[in-house]
TrEMBL record:
Keywords assigned by UniProt, alphabetized: Hydrolase, Magnesium, Metal-binding
Cofactor: Mg(2+)
InterPro entries the record matches: Beta-PGM-like, HAD-like_sf, HAD-SF_hydro_IA, HAD_sf, PGP-like_dom2
Superkingdom of the source species: Bacteria
GO molecular function terms noted in the UniProt entry: hydrolase activity
Family designation: Belongs to the HAD-like hydrolase superfamily. CbbY/CbbZ/Gph/YieH family.
Entries under PANTHER family matching the protein: 6-PHOSPHOGLUCONATE PHOSPHATASE
Name of this protein: HAD family hydrolase
Organism from which the protein derives: Stutzerimonas azotifigens
Pfam families in the cross-refs: Hydrolase
Amino acid sequence: MSAFDLLISDCDGVIVDSEILSKRVLFEALCTYVPAAKLGPLLEDTFGLTVPAIVRLVEQTFDLSIPETFDEDVRRESEAYVAEAVEPVPGAREALLGIDMRLAVASNSRRHNVESSLARAGLTERVAGNIFSADMVVSPKPAPDVYLLAAERMGVAAARCLVIEDSPTGVRAALGAGMQVIGFTGASHIPPGHAKTLLDLGVVAVIEHMDKLQETVARLRG
């Protein structure tokens, strides 16, 4: 009997290489309030966090107040930029098409953005509407809510879900939901030494290239 019944993938940084684009938009917008030289080091470990969480961090760190409209303004600009410029992670489509498991996507993005990214990656039919996004839960990642929702709606026990994640935020969310996680370090925003970071958090395996995903899933399924 296989150890897992459901594969759940993050979207940004796993299926599409979008994190680097979103980070660029956010960085440029925040530079209006904080010098780039001070802002850069603070943002190094924030990928996977929502914009409101990053804004709160910046406000607390630099003792300033950013307008309430900032989140929506950055989100609108980022969504437009990502929709126009994002590219699929190399090999992601082939890997996910080649794995004989039910597939869902759990993301800290909003649903319409995930749908757009899946279309860009050629995975709309494969995912078949099994999308669970930040706007569907009260608390986004690193809370486990979006993963627990995916398991509940798909009718699969959390312990029988296998997750693919790239960020510490997402890994914490999936582990908090009681799921096992494969770490992915192949997107363009990933810093050096990130594999160790994910392993230290408790992922069961790390892959750098999507051409290793199928064999890794097969090995973990038993």
